[in-house]
Amino acid sequence: MTDEPARWTKASVYPDMWIDPKDDPRDSEDPGPEGELATLQDYLSSYRMTLRMKCEGLDAEQLARRSVPPSTMSLLGLIRHLAEVERDWRNWFTDGDPLPKLYGARDADFHGAAAEQAVVDASYADLEREQATTDAVLAEYPDLGERVGPDNIAIRELLVHRIEEYARHCGHADLLRECVDGRVGQ
Predict the structure, then answer these.
(1) Could you list the pLDDT tens digit for every one of the 186 residues in the chain?
(2) Contacting residues for 99 by C-beta, under 8 A, at least 6 apart
(3) Whose CA is closest to 131, among 65, 45, 71, 6?
(4) Which residue segments constitute the domains of the chain, with CATH numbers given?
C-alpha cells in the first residue's frame, strides 16, 4: 500500500495530458494575437488560467497540502504568493513608500495557507483584486519601452517578468497537483 496517488487524466485523446486540446479553454482556432503587447497579455492570461485549472476541484485541505518537507509550498500558498507579488510589482512604479504586504512578514503567504475555506475564498479574492489593480496600472502605459519607478524599469520587462513568475509557478503547480491526486501536468 502507498500514499502516492495514481496518475489520472480527463484526456481521452492524449493520455499524457490532463485535458483534451479541443476542451482546453486556453487554446482557440483563432490566429494568434497581433502585436507585442497583445502577445504578452495573451501569455499572461494563459498562465493565469493554467494556475486556476490546476487548482480546480480541490477542497481547502488539498489546496493547502504542502509538497515535501521542509518546503512550505502548496497550491493555496502559490495563489497567495502571486497575489502578494502582483501587489509588490506596483511598487516598481512609484518613488513613494511601498504598499504594505498583504499577508505580513516574509513567506507569510505560504505559512498562512491554512486548510480553511474562508482562507481559500479570501486568497482567491485577493489574487483577483491584485491582478485587476496591477492590470489597470499597466494599462496606463501603452508604450512598452517606457521606463518607470526608481529602478527605471521598462514596462516590457515588467510584463515579461510577470509571465515568467506565473510560468514558473505553473510548473510548481503541476507537481503539487500530481502529489495531491495524481492529475498529470500539461
Answers:
(1) 456 666 656 666 666 666 666 766 667 667 778 899 999 999 999 999 999 999 999 999 999 999 877 888 999 999 999 999 999 999 888 888 889 999 988 888 888 999 999 999 999 999 999 999 999 999 999 999 999 998 899 999 999 999 999 999 999 998 899 888 887 766
(2) 87, 88, 90, 91
(3) 45
(4) 38-181 (1.20.120.450)
What string of DSSP letters covers 104-130?
-STTHHHHT--S-HHHHHHHHHHHHHH
Q: Helix, strand, or coil here: 132?
A: helix
Q: What are the two backbone dihedrals, phi and then psi, of residue 138, each rounded to the nearest 5 degrees?
A: -65, -30
pTM: 0.86
| E strand intervals along the chain | 147-148, 153-154
Q: Are 60 and 119 in contact (CB under 8 A)?
A: yes
Q: Which of 49, 79, 84, 81 is nearest to 62 (CA)?
A: 79
CA separation, residue 111 to residues 65, 106, 127 (Å): 11, 9, 17
Q: Which set of grid coordinates corresponds to residue 32?
A: 494568434
